[in-house]
Amino acid sequence: MRSRLRALWLSIKSSYWFIPSVLSFAAILLALGTIHLDRTRSVDWLSLFPWFEGSRPEGARAQLTVIASAMIAIASTVFAITIAAVAYASGNYGPRLLTNFMNNRGNQFSLGVFIATFVYNLVVLRVVQDPRDTSAADVAGETLTGFVPQLSMMVSAAFAILAIGVLVYFLHHIPASIRINTVLGEIGRKLIHDIERRFPIEGGSREPERRITGTPITARSMGYVEIIDFAELDEIAREEGLAIALRIRTGDFIHPHVPVVETSEAASEAIQQRILSCFSLGNSRTPTQDLEFLIDELVEIALRALSPGINDPFTAITSIHWMGAALAKLADRDLGEGPEQEGYDRARVQPLADDFDHFVRRSFGAVRASAATSPLAARMFLERLNGVRLGATSAQRREILVTEAGALVEQAELELKGPALKEVRETMRQLFQTL
């Protein structure tokens, strides 16, 4: 249950409407607060400043109406521009990146400021009163006066100035955010950050330990694993005296009859249901707890760039650069940890941990065949593998990297010929000659 609630919260927090909704609600509260201060005459001291010019009802209504109309028009334009940018990025870089652009905080904040400004002006506009809009006297015979919330008008003008600044930022942010180097940089830095958080021990060479085996528990539903509640699994294992070994990782697709976990002892149907409830399923993968998701994004961009229809080796080279940087982090760390280590005891709950060879095959191995078709990409492929090898902390990991480099050259023998193949061979000889 907690995994589903967490997945729901992550989905809400990363949705395109969350920040605009929060800012709009805050704008309503701010409007009610400034109106209250105006009604209680708590801001009469503003008239002491010579630069302060109070607004009249006609001018106040005109200002609020103009700002509100402009903000809702700009918000519509911002949304249209965002959708166009998302369509462009999805078509050129792959549909997998659609989530990255929809979750972009800059876009969400920009749209939120425009909508919040509209909402604020709309709430304030409602309370502006002109004596000519009412009877000349109330039932007591007293003359009615108009009401213009002067502090609220100043805040409205400040909101308008802020919105202009945000509009300039947005017009710069959109083209900058769809540049391929920016896209790859954001993915690569997020991947490296997740690697450092998941594998915090530097200078180690420990690989995942052998997993325990036992009685399998199979899935009862289907979908991508979005969140695994390790803390709940640990609680179940402690209460029932079990050891639980996962057969899947976050991001895997499961369906009925697929083994999800293995338990050291046979579990009752009720316990099996509790264990399965620790896995939140959805229609798509998410980067939460899933290192392979970000690796696959880099691989997808590289494969698209090297396809015959696009033939953009320099984009592929940039992807290889970031894959090499991530692999260098992995080559220098203990890999025996699973995601969110603080939430469970590894003696009771053992995640499906991946060794260094798995990450090499998932990244460089996935683009090897396409990289071998391009002399530029093939040479950079070898250079990055050599850079990772220089920082690897074990002979086993260095051997895996040399084997991958050899596989690239073997593949290039089938794809290249003439001087291009000679250059690849020479690069291999120069970089790995000490071996």
Folded structure, characterized:
The chain is mainly α and 435 residues long. It has 3 domains: 2-178; 215-282, Alpha-Beta Complex (Aldehyde Oxidoreductase, domain 3); 291-339 and 354-431. Helices cover 61% and strands 6% of the residues. It has 16 helices and 7 strands. The strands form 2 sheets. The protein has a 4-stranded mixed beta sheet. The radius of gyration is 30 Å and the shape is globular. Residues 139-143 have low confidence and may be disordered.
Layout of helices and strands:
Layout: H1 2-13, H2 18-39, H3 57-93, H4 98-102, H5 105-125, H6 150-177, H7 180-198, E1 215-218, E2 223-228, H8 230-240, E3 244-246, E4 253-254, E5 259-263, H9 269-276, E6 279-282, H10 291-306, H11 313-331, E7 349-350, H12 356-362, H13 364-371, H14 375-391, H15 395-415, H16 419-431
Parallel strand pairs: 3-7
Antiparallel strand pairs: 1-5, 2-4, 2-6, 3-5
Helix pairs in contact: 2-5, 2-6, 3-5, 3-6, 5-6, 7-10, 7-11, 10-11, 10-13, 11-14, 12-15, 13-15, 14-15, 14-16, 15-16
What is this structure, in a nutshell?
With 435 residues, the protein is mostly helical. The chain is built from 16 helices and seven strands. The protein has three domains: 2-178; 215-282, Aldehyde Oxidoreductase, domain 3 (Alpha-Beta Complex); 291-339 and 354-431.
